[in-house]
């Protein structure tokens, strides 16, 4: 599948070993449950890095460690307060073990860390998170690591289908929306959200930190109240976004900075709890058969879709489909597609 980057939600040794000597770049993750321990004990962070990073480099290319995921989405103030100290502890551990030049440290946040996101120029972090976000941004600026955001325009459309334009969220032709403060015009919600994050960072004194979308996607199925969760819309969102990324297109605010986006997900998570949509973000069913074929053009589609569609059924022989099942499903590893031939991997314990 020409994968060249992978993101794990953990640091599963079976996966890291399997990808040795492939040239694939890896991002691995420290779970939220470890943050308080690492924040209070540099030795714990060093032990984690010694066990989960050092044994695999350089055979496996580990280029980033994410510390925690959407920590500010809950109400656990102890974990919130532990995030930055844990990030610093992991960064120091990498340096102490001679790996600092090979791997950066970051953390992924929900787009809900923003108090305002439209117009993009009004982007601002929530006031209750200011005490955390400013020093985190300082850390990113000092270490050269990116600020990661999980953004899903689907949720905005689901919450208000009568007022949110479907073409606007699906990257389909639409009149666009103008930001009155900057004069910039936006023809899709995701790029507006990215620029809102840039505006929020600027309001905190930072124009020196990059933004990456560490998760986005669209479900192909949902409950009765999950408006817009259809195969056609999922194919349109992912296919049209993939086309934009293939063009190395930037946002209106940062036109010369190509958008870096991870698309969730490669496989449907058939055992995941919650609304039906949570189990239907994948391009493939758990048995390896495609949910839909991506189209590179507007509106999705069910055909091969040109060079931007590596998931068409004819790409896989019966033997290769069996190999995919044996390799990933028996290891209980969840793959997620990253545009530009990059994936994330989720492993279930």
Under CATH, the topology can be stated as TIM Barrel
Give the SSE order as H and E letters. EHEHHEHEEEHEHHEEHEHEHEE
CATH architecture type: Alpha-Beta Barrel
Strand coverage percent? 15-25%
Rounded mean pLDDT is: 84
Helix content: 25-40%
CATH homolog superfamily:
Glycosidases
Largest sheet: 9 strands, mixed
Low-confidence runs of at least 5 consecutive residues: 296-349
Task: Explain what you see.
The radius of gyration is 20 Å and the shape is globular. The chain is α/β, with parallel strands linked by helices and 349 residues long. The relative contact order is 0.12. Helix 3 crosses helix 4 and helix 4 (77-96) runs parallel beside helix 5 (130-143). The strands form three sheets. Strands 11-10-7-4-3-2-1-13-12 form a nine-stranded mixed β-sheet. A two-stranded antiparallel ribbon has the order 5-6. It has a two-stranded antiparallel sheet with strand order 8-9. It has helices spanning 13-18, 35-40, 42-52, 77-96, 130-143, 153-159, 166-169, 189-203, 231-246, 318-329, and strands at 5-8, 25-30, 61-69, 104-110, 114-116, 124-125, 147-150, 177-178, 185-186, 211-216, 261-263, 333-338, 342-347. It has ten helices and 13 strands. This is glucan endo-1,3-beta-D-glucosidase. Keywords: Glycosidase, Hydrolase, Signal.
